[in-house]
Specification:
Keywords: ATP-binding, Chemotaxis, Cytoplasm, Kinase, Nucleotide-binding, Phosphoprotein, Transferase, Two-component regulatory system. The protein is α+β, with helices and mostly antiparallel strands and 687 residues long. It has 20 helices and 23 strands. Helices cover 40% and strands 22% of the residues. A 6-stranded mixed beta sheet has the order 15-19-20-18-17-16. Strands 2-3-1-4-5 form a 5-stranded antiparallel beta sheet. The longest helix is centred in the first third of the chain and has 28 residues.
């Protein structure tokens, strides 16, 4: 099988756009299935999406994706034109979601540079059978014709209501693409590729659109010009050309009297008024658009490679470091530099505004991640014979794009766990006085410099006794049962190898999954907590930082080493008194603060750092908190607060030394390196 294009830029564009289209298609299908009907707008959008995927995949020579897309396109063309009644929406949804899964799988092969060996014939046969069944209900007599159309790869189906006369008409088209859509020459090639299947003597300007990069500028300024002969009507050709993605303006005229040389020949004189069709996707215009005088509105959104944003963020971080190195230069101490510090404050203000702007560019809403969960809930509900409703709250909440990539898997595990373990069967819910349909809610909301993502269900809740029993069987208890709080008991489910399911099923019972939630969240400085009431449901909360790039930190010194803590985790700092130190039998040192006892972690012991300050009264204590857990860290002294750029630890350190409680490192204003502490990791260390 031909494995497609090798041009990486074109390939990346294809992968991105197809993934976006598939995501949108899946959302439309699930919404329509829930409503038990396919509205005309939904049908039109599905038809457009499948037409776009068909054209782009055919251009890339991915014939199996093009074939399945074309079969689906034909099905929805018939549904759009004939509007059949009594159509089985559930069966149609299942069918199209199968197509979605097929395309997703093949697209993953494209990403991994594998051969696209998926065989779509069985799925195409299912689509054709469904089409035949709905046509039979309308007493349609042209089944054999539609079979042939469905199996004919790459053919665009135009309306058969207006039969061709056999007389070829000459048409002249000028197409303007939306600003910022990028790859205009490749989009133009897609149009020509499909147009040649239904026309004769097709010429275009610019001509060498796939090889000549300069053709992009010509198309942007003058539009893409085509002249061709076809037996279709003006309206049919307008609909055909208009169906392609990212078209802003389309001019279509009958090119009467035009000769067809080796290059485009634009007709002289004005075409008859009745033969002129014009479409403006953004702004209507009373006259034709010529040359660079395009009157369409400017698009305010452009797509940018995320690697460029990463580079911009890195440069922003270097600017923050450089600013700190200038303003904190020890050579400035004792000098009278009022004008310098005034300018430095202005620089700090500008740098801060630039930082906020760069951060906002990287922020993306959680909506796409949330909507992916709808398919998981739907499929699991069917497999487990449960009726489950998914509610989305606060999906417009934004976080750093890199953060989203880390929370997708944890969120999926939590949702699957809620449906599998939390939601009861129909009979059990009804006998307990609950509604037949279980409810799972996904909620996102801002909490200072963090975002809370909450998964809530109204199921049976967690059974503490069963959790404790399983934990004892696997030797997972770290202290006596009677000393454990409810939260500590519930958090046992996040330990590796823990599962309360006695049977291994498609979804659970293998002891793998919930520990992945903790690992992925700790990798981005996040955490997870759980609350539950037996018989009422469970609430699981993921706490994640807005960004990984730049944080407000408190710098401390331990011996000759420097460490940085996120200021959001620090509850208070104080100089301890020896009389408040308590040594519990068989346990580490504790300190009494306002009647409460907290464990102490000596950082010099934790990281094997030599220091002269071991007496508590000579050092400083920092009380840190996360998810209800508190601890006091003992250090030599505070160095001050500063914005720091988070850098990943060198790979040789991560690979060769298992150092706990570190989130990364940063460069301070004096040029020294400081290790950034992971408070969540420190709180989970057994002292």
């Amino acid at each position: 099988m031909d494995n497609g294009f090798s041009n990486q830029t074109i390939l990346d564009t294809f992968i991105y756009e197809t993934a976006q289209n598939i995501e949108q298609l899946e959302e439309i299908i699930l919404t329509s299935e829930k409503a038990s009907c396919f509205a005309p707008d939904a049908v039109n959008e599905i038809f457009r999406i499948m037409h776009t995927i068909k054209g782009s995949s055919a251009m890339m020579r991915y014939s199996n994706i093009a074939s399945i897309s074309h079969a689906t396109e034909d099905l929805f063309y018939y549904i759009r034109e004939e509007r059949p009644e009594n159509m089985d929406c559930s069966l149609l949804s299942d069918l199209i979601l199968e197509c979605v899964d097929f395309i997703k799988l093949e697209l993953e092969k494209v990403k991994n540079e594998d051969i696209l060996d998926g065989e779509p014939s069985n799925l195409i046969e299912k689509i054709r059978s469904f089409l035949i069944s709905i046509k039979k209900e309308r007493n349609c007599s042209v089944i054999s014709e539609m079979k042939e159309q469905t199996l004919h790869k790459g053919q665009y189906t135009l309306s058969r209501k207006d039969t061709e006369t056999g007389e070829l008409k000459a048409y002249e088209a000028v197409i303007y693409f939306e600003e910022g859509c990028e790859m205009e020459n490749i989009r133009a090639y897609t149009i020509i590729y499909n147009l040649k299947k239904i026309s004769e003597d097709c010429f275009c300007f610019p001509e060498d659109i796939t090889e000549d990069n300069g053709s992009v500028n010509i198309i942007q300024k003058q539009g893409f010009k085509i002249i061709f002969k076809c037996g279709k009507s003006m309206r049919e050709m307008y609909d055909f050309l208009n169906s392609f993605a990212f078209i802003r303006d389309l001019e279509l005229t009958e090119a009467s009297g035009c000769q067809f040389p080796g290059q485009i020949c634009m007709s002289e004189g004005k075409a008859p008024e009745e033969a002129f069709v014009k479409m403006s996707g953004l702004q209507a215009s009373d006259h034709a658009v010529h040359g660079s005088e395009s009157k369409g509105s400017h698009q305010s959104i452009i797509s940018v490679d995320v690697q460029k944003l990463d580079k911009l963020m890195d440069l922003m971080g270097e600017m923050v470091i450089s600013e700190a190195m200038v303003t904190q230069n020890p050579e400035l101490e004792g000098m009278s530099l009022s004008s310098f510090y005034k300018a430095a404050r202005q620089l700090r203000k500008i740098t801060s505004e630039m930082q906020d702007m760069v951060m906002s560019i990287r922020m993306v809403p959680l909506s796409a991640t949330f909507h992916k969960m709808q398919r998981i809930v739907r499929d699991m509900g069917r497999s487990l014979d449960k009726e489950v409703e998914l509610m989305l709250i606060g999906e417009e909440t934004e976080v750093d794009k890199n953060i989203i990539e880390h929370i997708s898997d944890p969120l999926m595990h939590l949702v699957r766990n809620a449906v599998d373990h939390g939601i009861e069967s129909y009979e059990s819910r009804i006998s307990n006085g609950k509604s037949k349909a279980g409810k799972v809610a996904l909620e996102a909301k801002n909490a200072g410099s963090d975002v809370l993502v909450i998964v809530k269900d109204d199921g049976k809740g967690l059974n503490k006794e069963k959790i404790l029993q399983k934990a004892k069987e696997h030797g997972l208890l770290s202290k006596p049962e009677n000393e454990m709080t409810d939260r500590e008991i519930f958090n046992l489910i996040f330990l590796p190898g823990f599962s309360t399911n006695d049977k291994v099923t498609e979804f659970s019972g293998r002891g793998v999954g919930m520990d992945v939630v903790v690992k992925n969240l700790e990798a981005v400085g996040g955490s997870v907590s759980i609350e539950s009431e037996e018989g009422a449901g469970t609430v699981t909360t993921m706490k994640i930082p807005l960004t990984l790039a730049i944080i407000d930190g408190m710098n401390i010194r331990v011996g000759n080493a420097k460490y940085t803590l996120p200021t959001t985790s620090i509850q208070e700092t104080f100089q301890p008194k020896s009389r408040n130190i308590v040594e519990a039998p068989g346990r580490n040192e504790m300190i009494m603060v306002r009647g409460e006892c907290y464990p102490i972690l000596r950082l010099h012991k934790m990281y094997s750092v030599k220091t002269d300050i071991t007496d508590f009264e000579k050092g400083i204590m920092l009380m840190v908190e996360q998810d209800g857990k508190c601890m006091c860290l003992f250090a030599d002294e505070l160095l001050g607060q500063q914005q720091v750029v988070v850098k990943a630890l060198p790979s040789y350190i991560k690979d060769t030394r298992n150092i706990k409680g570190l989130a990364g490192c940063t460069l301070l204003g004096d040029g020294s390196i400081s290790l950034i502490l992971n408070i969540g990791g420190l709180l989970n260390i057994k002292i």
